[in-house]
Amino acid sequence: MNEGPVEGSPALTGRAPDWFWSLGLFAVAFLLRVAYVLEISDTEVARVLVGDAFAYDLWARQIQRDWLGHEVFYQAPLYPYFLAALYSIVGPSFMAVRVTQAALGGAACVLLAGAGRRFFSRGVGLGAGLLLALYGPALFFTGLVHKMVLDLFFTTALLYALARADERESGRWVALVGAALGCLALTRENALAWLPLLAGWLAWRQGARALVPLLVGAALVLGPVAVRNAAVGGQPFLTTSQAGVNFYLGNNADADGTYTPLRFGRGSFAQERQDAIALAERAEGRTLTAAEVSRHWSGLAWRWISAHPAAWLELLARKWTLVWTARELPDSDEPLVYEDASVVLRATWTLSFGVLCPFALVGLVATWPERRRLGVLALMLLVSAASTAAFLVFARYRAPMIPILALFAAAGAARLAALARAPDARRGLAYLGLGAASAVATHFPRLDEGHPRAVAHYNLGVTLEGAGEVTRALDSYRAAVADDPAFAEAHVNLGALLARGGDLEGAIGEESAALRAKPEDATAHTDLGNALLQLGRLDEAELHYRAALRTDPDFPSAQEGLAVLRDLRAGAAPRPSPGGPP
Description:
single chain, 582 residues, mainly alpha, Serine Threonine Protein Phosphatase 5, Tetratricopeptide repeat, 3 domains, globular
């Protein structure tokens, strides 16, 4: 049972009922998010979906035509099904998606406040809800066609159900804990690591009888997914089949804790899945099931770990620090370009992960006497961090940690406020020192942030090029190389587009710039050879084709270029010149 509020946490003054504060909190969170969404609505980055967002939109449209699908889920499926349901109601409107996500964000703040009120106190609950309402990355997530809003919503729903279950020892609320956890696992697979923790805690607090509704609630959500995966793919995965690939991506000789695709330039989850299957089947010499593909990649990771334990421990330590870094490690979407377009995001971005962590550490220490009741929250935080560090780190992977950090941060702020009024300031100074040390620690390891806007422009260019919007793609690639003149990939893509448009001299300039930045880039050598070939500079073209093949002996387009050269020199009717205009 709930044992009362944390000592030193403030109670709100006044007699307003809880629903009044909940409504006000929802209004603040929702209106802030809508204001942000409206600010970015006319920008190129909001209009054009890149990376996973593009893939989610495409998947949602496919779901509308075929709700069951034909393969085992590789990527967490709940968000694209959420999109498909929304598209079926209002049409494929990105504005409708973002406004709906704003409403879910507001609801998450209310749920977190309710959980905080029961675990801590009324004041701490409202403080945590306000922190989430004003949390810059949460607003950023709202503007993306991506699943982080669902991560936050289901995490806060789980915390609220957990608080109610502890308060009333109710089987219904325990079942809702299981259901919320199941939903969260369908957006963030490593949430399943919480299941044994919650099972143990509930059994300790309420007896073994609590395990039945918990497992029933989770099974009601995950069971249909397992049945569906078994029906279409012959294997009853509870969520997805990508665990082995993700484990390998985070644990291999070249891993640094962040994401590097299996094949360069192919980072979308559709491309990653294709490459994971193709490379595994080539290595094994046979057709593989989804489970066998996953085992192949996890096996490679474990073999590297067993052969290099010291290197793995060093890598694991780095990933652990990356989980707690103040830097928001981006995926396809770079927050800075959204900040450029939004006053609201710039104003709220100062409240970010690096601010929550120091206050949360103070809160964790201050609430240690209440560990019988609050220890489950601290353990959930540590398990989430550990399960992220075991794989690889993006800022979005930390989303389930944010509501728990907000709870402890609000408790920490409350304790500091109480100690500031105390006659003996020594304990307050000790807490301040603890928070300051934590703030410093979140800035390590120092990351080379490079040119994040250049990466954002490049990702946008790739998407625009794929959609056939060549003029806009050229503008995006030019913006990328203007921000980062050493961005080889952007030069390569810009040069290829210029060549397709007939500007061969411009293409030669861009591919040459790419090679100055990355001298062994096989694609740049080949594209440069193609442009030189079309200008009749055969000897120079041959030098670049052969340079490409020294880097990658099986590079097809370089082999094709040499074949065309041989035809021209032999006087035969040449086959179509590679890299020429369509």
